[in-house]
Design a protein that fits this description.
Order of helices and strands of chain B: EHEHEEEHHHHHHHEEEEEEHHH
CATH superfamily of the largest domain in chain A: Beta-grasp domain
Oligomer: heterodimer
Structural class of chain B: alpha+beta
CATH topology of the domain at 224-324 in chain B: Enolase-like, domain 1
CATH topology of the largest domain in chain A: Ubiquitin-like (UB roll)
Radius of gyration of chain A: 17 Å
Strand order of the largest sheet of chain A: 2-1-5-3-4
Order of helices and strands of chain A: EEHEEEHHHH
CATH superfamily of the domain at 224-324 in chain B: CO dehydrogenase flavoprotein, C-terminal domain
Distance between the termini of chain B: 45 Å
Number of helices of chain B: 12
Helix content of chain A: 25-40%
Strand content of chain B: 15-25%
CATH architecture of the largest domain in chain A: Roll
CATH architecture of the domain at 224-324 in chain B: 2-Layer Sandwich
Helix content of chain B: 25-40%
Number of strands of chain B: 11
Number of helices of chain A: 5
Shape of chain B: globular
Radius of gyration of chain B: 19 Å
Shape of chain A: globular
CATH class of the domain at 224-324 in chain B: Alpha Beta
Strand content of chain A: 15-25%
Number of domains of chain A: 2
């Protein structure tokens, strides 16, 4: 058992994450969240800090294929993991993900702040398959809050993408 | 967050060896990291359990369903063994939180999550749970989400979990390991009532690690329900919830289990209330009698007085759903 567990200074840990298909080697303090690692250390500011407490979903990213609130993930605890952010949804040639295109077609965003989280959450939802009814989509997207109230159009966009 | 040291023990024995009273195990982090951001939890060290793959397993053997402490809530709810042998558990898990949170939250973390009392969360206010002896401002204060059963003059907080209410109804056992070896703690004895030591949420030892939850399999099929009443249709804690399951033979109840959430410091289960249902036809008078017994001693705190009547009506409604084999859907929100 360690003798002294008093907090250390700003020592950093080496953390490697594969972000949008690319291996990124970071040196992070253990208290750095995945959200802050993405935004501040990697310049990937697409993921948003809405509440920083897992209550809004604006920070939603895909971690090893599963949607999570990156504000509550300590990056150091995910050594070796794969992360996909909103910046990684479109194809390398710039072709939008079908869900992104559907969001445009169905006017599924106003201010756009919740949108990256909605898209990452929606992409995961499409793979999970909980899209069999409007009620199911609403329940399984309930972790993404939209203050502008774009919900009806978000649901419509997801329905369109699901139908393909 | 305050600085902390961080390590990733590769096996339960190493995690336990490193555990001091003040260090914290990190699993999904959905409650611990949140509390650390609010400066409510201030561990000098985090022991990340993420490398201990063996604790993620979900298996069934000889009538016991075993769910690893690091299995995520999402994986647990979706697991075919859980859906077959303990569908009430899947129902309760899916009624809580959000897909994102369920993908990270774990069995052990859900058991150990702390109350959402506003005063507990706010360092600017006194709180006997957070700082023993400072007082309980929820008593006579903002207490809409607080307890109507089992409270004390020191603390009226509730346990917020949905999963735990189902585990209580299913008579689960929490398996833990510590420096002295392995122990099995029945759900009824895992969470505490606040009494005059509200800072102690559970009977888990300071150096013990939860390794699994074991559930005796009970083939209820559709004869179960998790009825959750709350201010929003989703993504909100229960004001009152009811986990109920029954076995019927020849038109009579031969076994009933009922537990309440949102009303106490622990899931609320009363064996005498369940005994009142045995041998009876599943009718409204039987349900009302069970509800009355289950709510014996219920008392509002001022802003949560409505919970008593809400529970008095929710319990029979849940028992009706369980008896009828029409469990509450968490997609179609209308209550059948």
């Amino acid at each position: 058992m360690p003798d002294d567990l008093s907090p250390r200074g700003p020592e950093t840990l080496a953390v490697t994450l594969t972000v949008n298909g690319e291996a990124r080697r970071l040196r992070l303090q253990p208290w750095t969240t995945l959200l802050d690692a993405l935004r501040d250390h990697l310049g990937l500011t697409g993921s948003k800090k809405g509440c920083d407490h897992g209550q809004c979903g604006a920070c939603t990213v895909l971690l090893d294929g599963k949607r999570v609130n990156s504000c509550l993930v300590l990056a150091a605890s995910k050594e070796g993991s794969e992360v996909r952010t909103v910046e990684g949804l479109a194809a390398l040639d710039g072709t939008l993900h079908p869900l992104q295109q559907a969001f445009i077609t169905h006017d599924a965003f106003q201010c756009g702040y919740c949108t990256p989280g909605q898209l990452c959450s929606g992409v995961a939802l499409l793979e999970e398959g909980h899209t069999r009814s409007e009620a199911e989509i609403r329940e399984w997207m309930s972790g993404n809050i939209c203050r502008c109230g774009a919900y009806p159009n978000i649901v419509a966009a997801i329905q369109e993408a699901a139908s393909r | 967050m305050r600085p902390f040291s961080f390590s990733r023990p590769e096996a339960p024995a190493l995690a336990i060896a490193a555990k001091t009273a003040q260090a914290r195990f990190l699993a999904g982090g959905t409650n611990l990291v949140d509390l650390m951001k609010y400066d409510v939890e201030r561990p000098p060290a985090l022991l990340d359990l993420g490398r201990i793959e063996a604790l993620r397993e979900i298996t069934e053997s000889g009538g016991t369903l075993r769910i690893g402490a690091l299995a995520t809530n999402a994986d647990t709810a979706a697991h075919p063994l859980v859906q077959r042998h303990a569908p009430l558990l899947a129902d309760a898990i899916l009624a809580g939180a959000t897909p994102q949170l369920r993908n990270m939250a774990t069995t052990g973390g859900n058991l150990l999550q702390r109350t959402r009392c506003h005063y507990f969360y706010d360092r600017q206010t006194p709180c006997n749970k957070r700082e023993p002896g400072t007082g309980c401002p929820a008593i006579g204060g903002v207490n809409r989400i607080h307890a109507i059963l089992g409270a004390s003059s020191s603390c009226i907080a509730t346990h917020p979990s949905d999963m735990c209410v189902a585990l209580a109804a299913l008579e689960a056992v929490v398996v833990v390991q510590g420096p002295e070896g392995e122990r099995r703690i029945p759900m009824a004895g895992f969470h505490r009532l606040p009494g005059d030591e509200p800072w102690r949420d559970t009977t888990l030892g300071e150096r013990e690690l939860i390794t699994a939850v074991e559930i005796p399999t009970w083939e209820t099929g559709g004869h179960r329900t998790y009825l959750k009443l709350r201010d929003r249709l989703s993504y909100a804690f229960a004001l009152v919830s009811v986990a109920a399951a029954v076995t019927l033979e020849g038109g009579r109840i031969t076994k009933a289990r009922v537990a309440l959430g949102g009303v106490a410091h622990k899931p609320w289960r009363v064996a005498e209330a369940e005994a009142l249902l045995e041998g009876r036809a599943p009718d409204e008078p039987a349900f009302a009698a069970a509800a009355e017994r289950l709510l014996h001693g219920a008392q509002g705190q001022g802003e949560n007085d409505f919970k008593v009547e809400l529970a008095r009506r929710a319990i029979p409604r849940a028992l009706h759903q369980a008896a009828a084999g029409t469990p509450q859907s968490h997609v179609e929100k209308a209550i059948s």
